[in-house]
Design a protein that fits this description.
Chain lengths: 424, 277
């Protein structure tokens, strides 16, 4: 009999809109208690507004039920705000559900951020202990794994230097090294493999593969479909706080990508989505057009378009775009400043003379800021598939990033006087 | 191969009032130790005189009090030298004030950790009140020196000290539980606490002996646990002043109620505190 590691029944989590963004000032409560003096007596879930049907509430997660068997590696995919992180947070007991029930069998370790609990004034050595303890390791466990952690991080020489003198990259290495040596029976991971340089990302992904093969149960949230494909056997696709589809990885991921490509997103917009200023909706290749708008089949001129729904006018907007390879290597990035976008649907067009990329999967990342800060960031789904002939060296080892067709010919000089012309 | 674990965690909305899991807190004792250890390590980092601050703060306050309340205002001191009279009261008071302040801010300061990983949140205010004990210990050495200097010999009453200190810790922890949870929701608390501490000091016999309080208000005074702690501290060390009386029992009861209420309130908030900070 195979044991069930996680059983979830009708799990739901309701947030008051803005609850995560701001705390209450006492004056709000005072003002509210003046208008409705006895309301606080009935308050529910400690939030000053009791009416759960009020439009000020949003269900970040609703009626979610599933089972995960012991040793299974399950991916969770979905757009920003689909409820993926909320689900992990409930299973990790960081926050309580509003309704429903979950049963978790085994020691749970959660990895929702790298470097949880790091203190800049403490040395690397001290931070390994502190962060390890916060993530749930015992002191003896850390003692035992200390050398391994240090070796994995590659920061041996700086162990007794305060963390604040580390570069960001070094901090990340150390942080992931600690996290990677967590030894729980159930591991909850949220989008943490997207950090550090390429070399280190590979190392992290390798470590994750090792973890998932070791019989541990893993729930893995990621926007990177290639990571999901590589690590997970089964996938839950979350949207609007519900599981819209689950099944074998290749099926669900393909369905997910297809749904996004077909622009179903616009119709799928859930009604209770909090109103955001603007939101990226989809991207596609418009020129040259073919059946699959995420597949690039030419080395000639390319035009892409990104759809943005703007709900509030954007002033002094800043828009960034980046293209990553499936290994997470930045291929290209660019930014536009001082954008003005009125309310409505916008298309952002990009035309390139060519995208000389070697065949493979790539991901577009786009962001939009205004004077008030980040408005939306989107890991473009589906991935862009480059399906052009490879103009590369026949040996894999000599394959570079660029896929450049080149003209080549040999020209032999007939007369020795030619050599003089060439300056010899 | 991993075998089926005996750990089974049921996750559901909390309903009952009293479900404080003391065993769980015990299971996380190492993390508590690490938080205390970190607080102590970090406290005087990048300061020139380091832990000497733990002595300098109460010492300089003692000098100022001796000058102004003692020499100028001529406040009675049970016949004790002013430095001993004030320093012996300032030690528990400054511990309490610092512990309360740290406990109040601790949840908000650990916002990042709280939203990323689970542990019983109660460990944070507990660590905040415990780490102050080290400063207290350092400053206490000076007190011993001062008593030797003035030739004051403690009596058997010093055996009361650990108990009095425990009461101070419990008071800071109990009130800190309330304030740290409230501070997570209403940031006003952070600004109100310095005033609260200031008023509380004047409501405690730090700068004066409790015998100055009129007889008919003594019962109210007894409700302030820190009044009993501070007066008891002086008495336990020097034999002068009032030993703990029946009113002291009242303040012990008051601490117990505040602590119990704080535990229940904090526990109630715990499940959703990550959504609020």
């Amino acid at each position: 009999m195979i044991d069930i590691a996680i059983r979830v029944e009708n799990l739901g989590k309701r947030y008051r809109i803005g609850q995560r963004e701001r705390y209450y000032a006492l004056r709000d409560v005072l003002a509210r208690s003046l208008t409705a003096p006895f309301r606080f007596l009935h308050r529910n879930n400690h939030s000053p507004v009791p009416d759960s049907q009020s439009p000020n509430f949003i269900w970040a997660l609703k009626d979610v039920s599933f089972e995960v068997k012991q040793g299974e590696v399950v991916g969770i995919i979905g757009r920003n705000g689909a409820g993926k992180t909320t689900l992990l947070k409930i299973l990790a007991r960081i926050t309580e559900p509003t309704e429903g029930y979950a049963e978790v069998r085994g020691r749970v370790g959660s990895l929702l951020e790298v470097g949880t609990g790091f203190h800049p004034e403490l040395t690397g050595r001290e931070n390994i202990y502190l962060s390890g303890a916060i993530l749930g390791m015992t002191k003896r466990e850390i003692d035992r794994k200390f050398d391994e952690i240090v070796a994995f991080s590659g920061v041996e020489q700086f162990l007794d230097t305060p963390l604040k003198h580390y570069s960001v990259g070094m901090q990340m290495r150390l942080a992931f090294a600690v996290a990677a040596h967590l030894d729980p029976e159930i591991l909850l991971v949220d989008e943490v493999l997207a950090v550090g340089d390429l070399e280190f990302q590979k190392k992290c992904l390798g470590k994750m593969e090792e973890v998932s093969r070791s019989g541990r149960t893993v729930l893995f949230v990621s926007h990177q479909m290639n990571q999901i494909r590589r690590l997970c056997e089964r996938v839950f696709w979350l949207d609007g706080g519900r599981i819209v589809r689950e099944g074998p990885t290749h099926e669900v991921v393909s369905a997910y990508e297809a749904a996004l490509t077909s622009g179903e997103w616009l119709r799928q917009q859930r009604p209770d989505t909090p109103k955001v200023k603007a939101r990226f909706i989809k991207w596609e290749i418009v020129e040259p057009r073919n059946d699959q708008p995420n597949v690039l089949t030419t080395l000639g001129p390319v035009t892409l378009r990104f759809l943005v729904q703007v709900n509030e006018p954007i002033r002094f907007g800043h828009h960034g775009i980046a293209l990553f390879s499936s290994e997470g290597q930045l291929m290209w990035a660019w930014a536009a400043n001082n954008l003005t976008l009125e309310v409505g649907l916008h298309e952002l067009h990009y035309t390139f003379p060519m995208l000389p990329l070697r065949p493979g999967a790539y991901a577009w990342h786009v962001s939009l800021y205004d004077s008030g800060g980040l408005v939306d960031v989107w890991y473009g789904v589906p991935e862009m598939i480059v399906a052009v002939p490879s103009y590369q060296h026949p040996v894999d080892h000599w394959n570079g990033f660029l896929n450049l067709p080149c003209q080549f010919h040999v020209h032999q000089h007939r007369r020795s006087s030619d050599a003089k012309d060439l300056g010899f | 191969m991993i075998t089926t674990s005996e750990f089974v965690q049921i996750i559901r909305p909390r309903r009952s009032w009293w479900d404080i899991d003391l065993r769980e807190i015990w299971a996380y004792r190492e993390l508590l130790y690490f938080f205390v250890w970190r607080d102590i390590k970090v406290r005087y980092k990048q300061t020139v005189i380091g832990a000497a601050w733990a002595i300098l703060q109460p010492f300089m306050t003692m000098v100022v009090f001796s000058l102004f309340f003692g020499k100028l205002a001529k406040i009675p001191s049970h016949g004790l030298p002013y430095p001993v009279f004030y320093y012996s009261a300032l030690l528990p008071w400054m511990y309490f004030a610092g512990a309360l302040q740290n406990a109040t801010n601790t949840i908000v300061e650990h916002q990042r950790v709280i939203t990323k990983v689970y542990f019983p949140r109660i460990i944070l205010p507990l660590a905040a009140v415990l780490s102050g004990l080290v400063d207290f210990g350092i400053a206490f050495i000076i007190l011993i020196g001062m008593m030797l200097f003035y030739g004051i010999m403690p009596t058997l009453a010093v055996l009361w000290l650990p108990f009095l200190m425990l009461l101070a810790v419990a008071t800071a922890f109990g009130v800190g539980l309330w304030l740290s949870a409230l501070n997570a929701i209403y940031r006003d608390v952070r600004y109100a606490v310095p005033f609260l501490i200031q008023f509380w000091m004047f409501a405690s016999p730090v700068a004066y002996p409790s015998s100055l309080v009129p007889e008919r208000w003594q019962w109210l005074y007894g409700l302030n646990p820190m009044a009993g702690v501070i007066e008891g501290f002086r008495w336990a060390l020097t034999g002068q002043g009032q030993p703990p009386q029946s009113l002291f029992a009242v303040s012990v009861l008051a601490v117990f109620l505040v602590l119990l209420g704080g535990l229940i309130y904090f526990r109630r908030m715990e499940g959703t505190i990550a959504d609020l900070v």
